Amino acid sequence: MNYRDVMPSSIPIVSQARLEVLVADYQRVVQQRRRQSLLVLAILAVLVLLAARFGEVDLRNLIDNISNFTSYFSRIMPKLSAAHFGADVADWYWNITGWLKLLLDTILIAYLATLIGAVGALATAPLAAANLAPSGTLRWTIKRIFEFCRTVPDLVFALMFVAAFGLGPLAGILAIAIHTFGTLGKLFIEALENIDMKPVESVRSTGSRFIETVRFGALPQVMSTFASYTLLRFEINVRSGSVVGMVGAGGIGQDLFVAIRKFYYTDVSAILLMIIVCVAVIDLVTERVRHRLSGRDIRR
Amino acid sequence: MSALRVMRPEETVAVLDRHRDLFDDSTRSRVFAVAAPLGLLAFTAFAVWWLALPFDQILQGLTSLAKFVALMFPPSTGGHLDLLVKAMGETLAIAFLGTLIATVAAFPISFLAASNTTPHPIIRFVVRRCLDTIRSVDALIWALVFVGVVGLGPFAGILAIAVSDTGALGKLFSEAIESADERTRESVLASGGTGLLAVRFGLLPQVLPIIAGQVLYFIESNVRSATIIGIVGAGGIGLQLSEQIRTYDFDQVAFAVIMILVTVAIIDWVSGKLRFAIIGRRPVV
């Protein structure tokens, strides 16, 4: 059998009349989408103008002063020369021991805050997950508390705690812990609401109490997801930990704030470089661990 | 079936044998199960010791916190509602314009940073590292820098959010581009399209909805960040808030916080609706 018998020798040609209908249809759809995009753009333009008025956007000011911005970066660059490189670096990092101590402070603040927040969220999230919650009112209340904790900025908490507990890392830890509690609580609830309910039901059918149901039915399915979220949060908290110092709540932020405000240019770059390297290292390590954790959940 | 049959002991053993792998933890995982909590605990003890946390101040601190909370009720505007509303408007403007500028800046950059559209791997590497560096400096620090450049006011805040989010959005956009389906691009190329046309008709239609969802999500989260950059003088409600905390006007603090909560809830609701209309119920990040 020749292949020509089964396969058409050419693509069938659409009749002119049919083609015109198709083209007209296509044009109409394109027109409609164009009109839609134009409408969205117009709304966006109005919003931009409104926001620019409120935000006191002053392009002339920016253009006049943009040289400040670029020259800022050349000013914070350390003066290093190949001739006496070691001495220059030593001069740049004149306070290396002090800064390293503060950086360790920052990491420990982030660590304690993450730990407190994660433990708190772990303890309360099962009470607020729709598929596990023992009571509707309790669930609603806990969800609102999570919302409150993550919406009020951590720096506002830090300011209040500095006023209450005095200057120092304690205020920073508590502020970041509360924020972590709110964000992790929300993420934990979402993870719990997506679990397979069969193990939960089988544990329940043995007459278990709430806490046993959660421990043996739900947690084994989500523990590695929880650990992964917590590690991600730790990395974010190291970043926030470097900022709460600006309001006196401990960590390297205080020194950075002083350096920026008092124009100790090379100090700014020295401290920033330390923070960037530190965050990058933590990022790398936690990413490794998170990749190993993902896919280790006991599911299905 | 009249009753459940009780398993005979040898049957139990057989079942256990069949699922040996579920019951036999390796020594390594057993050691890990003990060592991990111990390690966490030891590190916690070290942290508490190193930071010299003043536990004797906790009780005193809690009593003063309770006093602050008592002072918060009833919340009051302190007689300048107009100022607060204007500051909240500034906050929204900062979040909106900051995110928009960041989007416009990050969009072209992300094509350089995505493995399937970058002109050269070295360019991709350099661009990625730059984005990482920008991202690891907090928006508040950028705000401090920009206050020095354009002076006090919301404009500094807009620029700070714009710069720090260019880093974050550039990374997210490039990941969206990388995960796009290659076949549509290839089919455009196969029908004789140029590389640019392939990106326009093969890539953008897939990527744009994802990007729009991410941008909306960032506007949401930036409303939260924009409430604090006022603390360093970069506009928005943060300035009022930090002043009121420093002067112990806690009834006004409570009012400002309630304003923030309500505004954020409204923005979340609106952008959630928009996001749903654009991409459906899909996680954004």
| Number of alpha- plus pi-helical segments of chain A | 12
Please count the helical segments of chain B. Answer: 12
Main beta sheet of chain A: none
| CA radius of gyration of chain B | 27 Å
Oligomer: heterodimer
Global structural class of chain A: mainly alpha
> What's the CATH superfamily of the largest domain in chain B, by name?
MetI-like
The fraction of residues assigned to DSSP E strands of chain B is under 5%
Runs of chain A in which pLDDT lies below 50 for 5 or more consecutive residues are none
End-to-end Cα distance of chain A: 51 Å
Of all chain pairs, the largest interface belongs to: A-B, 61 and 65 residues
Morphology call of chain A: extended
Order of helices and strands of chain B: HHHHHHHHHHHH
Give the total of beta strands of chain A.
0
Could you state the CATH homologous superfamily of the domain at 96-293 in chain A?
Answer: MetI-like
Secondary-structure element order of chain A, N to C: HHHHHHHHHHHH
Structural class of chain B: mainly alpha
The top level CATH class name of the domain at 96-293 in chain A:
Mainly Alpha
CATH architecture of the domain at 96-293 in chain A: Orthogonal Bundle
Write the layout of secondary structure elements.
The complex is a heterodimer of chains A (300) and B (285).
Chain A: H1 3-6, H2 16-54, H3 59-76, H4 85-92, H5 96-128, H6 136-151, H7 154-165, H8 169-193, H9 197-205, H10 210-244, H11 253-261, H12 265-293
Chain B: H1 9-18, H2 20-23, H3 27-51, H4 56-71, H5 81-113, H6 121-136, H7 139-150, H8 154-178, H9 182-190, H10 195-226, H11 238-246, H12 250-279
Helix pairs in contact in B: 5-8, 5-10, 6-8, 7-8, 8-10, 9-10, 10-12, 11-12
Structural summary, described in words:
- The complex is a heterodimer of chains A (about 300) and B (about 280).
- Chain A has 12 helices and no strands.
- With about 300 residues, chain A is mainly α.
- Chain A starts with a helix and ends in a 7-residue tail after the last helix.
- In chain B, helix 5 (about 80-115) runs antiparallel to helix 10 (about 195-225).
- Chain B has helices spanning about 10-20, 20-25, 25-50, 55-70, 80-115, 120-135, 140-150, 155-180, 180-190, 195-225, 240-245, 250-280.
- Chain B is mostly helical and about 280 residues long.
- The model of chain B has no long low-confidence stretch (mean pLDDT about 85).
- Classes of the chains: A mainly alpha (about 300), B mainly alpha (about 280).
